[in-house]
Amino acid sequence: MPQPSHSPVRPVPSLRPAPDVARADAYLESLQLLERLHRLLLDLIKDEFERLGRSDLTPVQALLIYNLGGSEVTAGELRSRGMYQGSNVSYNLKKLVELGYVSHERCDMDRRAVRVRLTSSGQDVRDHVCALFARHAEGLALSGVLDDPAIEAVNLQWRRIERFWLEQIRYIY
Questions:
Q1: Domain 28-142, CATH 3.10.290.10 — does that match?
Q2: What is the largest CA-CA distance in the chain?
Q3: Predicted local distance difference test score (pLDDT) of residue 170
Q4: Cβ distance 62 to 82 under 8 Å?
């Protein structure tokens, strides 16, 4: 009866280093946290407007008003600087115009484009969202949450990830 060979099995060499599984898991956890944080942000905005007795706006619309701020922009510019999908921003802008929070007018140079800006009612909504965010920032600062690691370092990391993702999108096309 032949004896089994005890020679060690050699792994096939890889052209790429094995991914750091712990790092990959941490990255995936970050993505899940980011997604949950965005949903929680919308819930916080919804609760704030419910407390104010304002049920005419969705949290996404209130956040869109906040991000519009004092600017006068096109829908395309809002898409490029926010987290808005094309049809969503168009639909929400139409609703915000109907509700009187946003005004719009055709661009003189390109009659196909529409420029939008906040009305005084829209500015009131923006002020409420700003006040909410200021209260949150104050509470987080008092609790020390913004210090370890410093929120500036966290933001730097997210900007780097954003830049990486943008490069991935550009690479595809």
A1: no
A2: 93
A3: 79
A4: no
